[in-house]
Amino acid sequence: MEKDFKITATEGLHARPIALLVNAVMPFEAEVQLTYKDKSVNMKSIVGVLSQGVAPGSIVKISANGPDAEPLMQAVSEIMSTKGIGEEC
């Protein structure tokens, strides 16, 4: 299961929104990846996501695979929209 998001936060993906996203996905069993510019990282790793250097207006792909992938993606979508981080494409 995967979704694309356009990053709308004026600072892009920096420490605070990344921490919100990582904390949202940690309780889930599913593996979750964030892909930006053809490079994928484990979305459960703050350092991994930070290393992507995602700028405002960028499109990222979030993919989840596992028994609870669907609720994980719902949690990501909710955090993205309610915290002003990004919007689904």
From TrEMBL:
Q: Which CDD domains match?
A: PTS-HPr_like
Q: Where does it reside?
A: Cytoplasm
Q: Which PROSITE patterns match?
A: PTS_HPR_DOM (PS51350)
One BP annotation, GO: phosphoenolpyruvate-dependent sugar phosphotransferase system
InterPro entries on file: HPr (IPR050399), HPr-like (IPR000032), HPr-like_sf (IPR035895)
Describe the location of the HPr domain by residue ranges. 1-88
Q: Keywords of this protein's UniProt record, alphabetized?
A: Cytoplasm, Phosphotransferase system
**Which Gene Ontology CC terms are recorded?**
cytoplasm
Q: Which residues form a coiled coil?
A: none
Q: Which NCBIfam families match?
A: PTS_HPr_family
PANTHER family xrefs: PHOSPHOCARRIER PROTEIN HPR, PHOSPHOCARRIER PROTEIN NPR
Can you name this protein? Phosphocarrier protein HPr
* Organism of this sequence: Lysinibacillus odysseyi 34hs-1 = NBRC 100172
